[in-house]
Design brief:
43% of the residues lie in helices and 14% in strands. It has 622 residues and is of the alpha+beta class.
Length: 622
C-alpha cells in the first residue's frame, strides 16, 4: 500500500512538466559551494552556493515589569534571514557512510573534489578519495566529447590538495556537496546537454550499481513485473527527524534473523531497481518539502494527494496548517486557508475539489537506528478525511477565542501535555507516539488517546490553566487546553459540553469551576487587582480534585474579600453570582475523576473569560 502509492506519485510528477521530482538516474542533494574554472581547467574561484530564506517572526519575552508594555504573547522578534544550501537534481546518488571509495559524477563533497576535510583525522583516506575522484573524471572525459567535462578533468589533474589551505573560507562554505561551473557560462557542468544525453543513454549510476552481476532477476512486489531486483533500496531517505544525516531506509535486511530461505538483502522483499528508485525518490521529495512535511514530538509526517497540482497544494497546505499551526509559511494565502478551514468545520468541501473522491495519504515516520519505523499510515478519500477533520474542528470549538486565533493544531494540542520551558510548552517532553495517536484519532474518527486528556488536565492541575508567570502565550494556552478537554469529553464520553458560558447548566463540576472563578474575581476586586498571588495559584489543583476539602474554606475567605470591596455595585454582583451557583449545589464532592476535573476547567474558563467582555466590564463599572 505505501510503496505503490509512492510509485504512483513519482510517475504522476515525472510526467508533469516542471514538477519538483528528481528524474530517473538523478537525486536531490544539498549544494553549498561551487568550483568555478576556466575552459582550460584553471581555477578561477571557489564560491558559496546558498539560498536565503526568511524565517517567520517568533514570540519573545516582554518586559513584564513595565505595565505599559504589550502583553507577552503579542511581542515578537523580527524575522531573520537564514542561508541554506541550495537543492539541486544531480546525477546518481550520494554514498552512505563506510561504503568505501565511491566518487560521484561532476559533484561530491570537498574531500573527493579537492582533497580537503576540516579537522581531518584520516588524511590518507581523504587523499585516496581525491585520487579516485580524479581517475573517475579522467575516464569520463575520454567517453564524453564535451569541453566542459574535459576542463574538469584538466583541473583535477593539476590540482594539489595542499592548495586548499590558501582558501580560508573553504571550511565555512564546504559544509555540503559542491558542483563545477565554467566561468562566463550559465548553469553548471552537470546540466550541459552533452553530458545529460550521455548520462541517460548509459543508465547513470543505477546501471553501474545494479548490473546483472549484482542484481538477481525476480518479480517486483509493486507491479508483478519481471526484472532485476534491487539489492538495496536507494536513494536513502533523508530529512527525517532523529535519523542518520546520511539517510535511512524503510526496507533493509542486515542481520540473518531478518532474512528468509537464505536470501540476502533486497531479495527478501523483492522490488525492481526502477520501483525502488521511484518510491525512494518520491519519499525523499516529500520529507524535504515543508509543504508536505511536518515534525511533531520527534516524528516526521508526510502527506500527499492523488489529485491535480492545484488541489494537491491546497489540500497539503491546509493539512499542514491543521497539524503544525498557522505560523508556517504556506503555499496559499491565509485567507484561502481560513476559508477552507471554515468550510471543512461546517462539513462542506470546497467546490474546487468536486466530489472529493481523490485519494489522500498520510505517512508517519520515526527513527529506529539505521532504519525508519512506520508510525502511521492512513489512506482514504479527500471527502472522508474532510468529514473527520470537520468533526475534530467542531469538537475544538471554544469561546471566547483570544485574538481570533485559528483552531489549535495537533502540534499545539499535544504540546499542552508538556511542562513549560522558557515561557512555552516544551515539545521535547511530549510523550513519544502521542502525536501519532492523536492524528490517528482525528483522521479515523476514533476516540482520542486518553493520554491527551490526562496530560492536559494534569498540567492544568499544576499550573491552573495557564498564567503570565509561566507562559508567554497564556491566553492562547488557556483556550487550547479547554478546547482539547472539550473535544475529548464530547468524543470519548459523549458529553454535551457548552461552547460558551452556560448559566443554566447544573453539572456540579461545571458549577464548581464557575464558583472558583467567581471567588477569584472577588479576591481581585477586594484589592483592586494588586495581587502577586491569587487563590488560583494556591488552591486550583486541590479545588478541582477534592472540592469538599477546599471550597468551605474558600467561601469563608470570600466573605472577608467581599467586605473589602469598595464598590457597592461590584460587591452586590459578586454576592449574587456566588448565591446563584451555590443554590444548585447540594454538596461538595469529596473527590473528582479526570473527566470531572476537565469539566471543572471548562467552567472556570467560561466564567473567568466572561469578566473580560465589554458587557461585564460595563456592569462592573455600574
Amino acid at each position: 500500500m505505501i510503496i505503490p502509492a509512492l510509485i504512483r506519485r513519482y510517475d504522476r510528477l515525472n510526467a508533469t512538466e516542471g514538477a519538483a521530482i528528481a528524474p530517473k538516474g538523478y537525486s536531490e542533494q544539498q549544494i553549498s559551494f561551487k568550483i568555478v574554472i576556466t575552459k582550460r581547467g584553471e581555477l578561477h574561484a571557489i564560491e558559496p552556493v546558498f539560498v536565503e530564506t526568511q524565517e517567520p517572526a517568533r514570540p519573545r519575552q516582554a518586559n513584564t515589569k513595565n505595565k505599559k508594555s504589550k502583553p507577552a504573547e503579542d511581542v515578537v522578534s523580527p524575522a531573520k534571514i537564514k542561508r541554506r544550501p541550495k537543492r539541486m537534481f544531480l546525477p546518481g546518488q550520494s554514498k552512505p557512510s563506510g561504503s568505501g571509495l565511491n566518487p560521484c559524477t561532476l559533484w561530491d563533497n570537498a574531500a573527493y573534489m579537492l582533497g580537503f576535510k576540516v579537522d581531518d583525522l584520516k588524511p590518507e583516506r581523504t587523499s585516496a578519495a581525491f585520487q579516485e575522484f580524479r581517475k573517475h573524471h579522467a575516464r569520463l572525459a575520454e567517453q564524453i566529447t564535451d569541453e566542459a567535462v574535459g576542463a574538469v578533468a584538466k583541473f583535477l589533474e593539476n590540482w594539489k590538495p595542499s592548495n586548499a589551505r590558501e582558501h580560508q573560507d573553504l571550511a565555512a562554505i564546504a559544509t555540503n556537496f559542491g558542483v563545477f561551473q565554467i566561468i562566463g557560462e550559465p548553469g553548471f557542468v552537470h546540466e550541459r546537454a552533452n553530458f545529460k544525453s550521455w548520462w541517460l543513454s548509459h543508465g547513470g549510476d543505477n546501471k553501474k550499481a545494479h548490473s546483472s552481476n549484482d542484481a538477481s532477476a525476480g518479480y517486483s512486489l509493486a507491479d508483478g513485473q519481471l526484472g532485476p531486483i534491487a539489492r538495496l533500496h536507494q536513494p536513502m531517505i533523508k530529512s527525517v527527524a532523529g535519523a542518520q544525516s546520511s539517510g535511512a531506509a524503510i526496507v533493509s535486511f542486515n542481520q540473518d534473523a531478518f532474512t528468509s530461505f537464505g536470501k540476502e538483502q533486497g531479495d527478501n522483499s523483492p522490488l525492481s531497481v526502477d520501483d525502488a528508485e521511484k518510491y525512494c525518490t518520491a519519499l525523499n521529495a516529500l520529507t524535504t518539502n515543508d509543504q508536505h512535511r511536518v515534525r511533531i514530538a520527534g516524528d516526521t509526517y508526510v502527506f500527499w494527494a492523488e489529485a491535480d497540482p492545484e488541489q494537491d497544494v491546497m489540500l497539503c497546505s491546509s493539512f499542514c496548517n491543521l497539524l503544525d499551526g498557522s505560523s508556517r509559511q504556506a503555499a496559499v494565502s491565509d485567507d484561502e486557508l481560513r476559508a477552507f478551514t471554515d468550510q471543512i468545520r461546517e462539513g462542506r468541501l470546497p467546490s474546487a475539489f468536486g466530489g472529493g473522491e481523490s485519494r489522500f495519504h498520510i505517512l508517519g515516520l520515526a527513527p529506529n537506528m539505521s532504519r525508519l519505523s512506520i508510525r502511521l499510515w492512513l489512506s482514504s478519500s479527500v471527502r472522508e478525511f474532510a468529514e473527520r477533520i470537520g468533526k475534530h474542528l467542531a469538537g475544538l470549538k471554544m469561546e471566547p477565542v483570544p485574538d481570533s486565533a485559528s483552531p489549535p493544531s495537533v502540534r499545539e494540542l499535544v504540546n499542552e501535555t508538556a511542562p513549560p520551558k522558557s515561557g512555552f510548552a516544551d515539545s521535547d517532553r511530549v510523550a513519544p507516539g502521542l502525536a501519532g495517536a492523536v492524528m490517528h484519532a482525528v483522521l479515523t474518527g476514533r476516540p482520542y488517546p486518553r493520554a491527551l486528556l490526562t496530560g492536559i488536565v494534569g498540567r492544568v492541575r499544576i499550573e491552573g490553566l495557564a498564567d503570565s508567570e509561566t507562559r508567554k502565550d497564556f491566553r492562547k494556552a488557556q483556550h487550547r487546553r479547554c478546547a482539547a478537554i472539550r473535544a475529548c469529553l464530547t468524543r470519548n464520553h459523549s458529553m454535551e459540553i457548552p461552547v460558551a458560558l452556560d448559566t443554566a447548566r447544573r453539572d456540579p463540576p461545571y458549577l464548581l469551576g464557575r464558583l472558583f472563578a467567581v471567588l477569584e474575581r472577588t479576591q481581585e476586586n477586594a484589592v483592586e487587582g494588586n495581587l502577586n498571588r491569587t487563590i488560583r495559584d494556591a488552591y486550583y489543583g486541590s479545588a478541582s480534585t477534592t472540592p469538599a476539602a477546599i471550597f468551605p474554606r474558600l467561601l469563608s475567605l470570600s466573605r472577608h474579600h467581599l467586605n473589602k470591596i469598595k464598590s457597592t455595585g461590584k460587591r452586590i454582583m459578586r454576592e449574587k453570582e456566588v448565591g446563584s451557583i451555590v443554590e444548585h449545589l447540594n454538596a461538595f464532592p469529596t473527590s473528582q475523576g479526570m473527566e470531572n476535573q476537565g469539566l471543572f476547567a471548562i467552567g472556570y474558563y467560561h466564567q473567568r473569560q466572561s469578566y473580560f467582555t465589554r458587557k461585564d466590564e460595563a456592569a462592573d463599572a455600574d
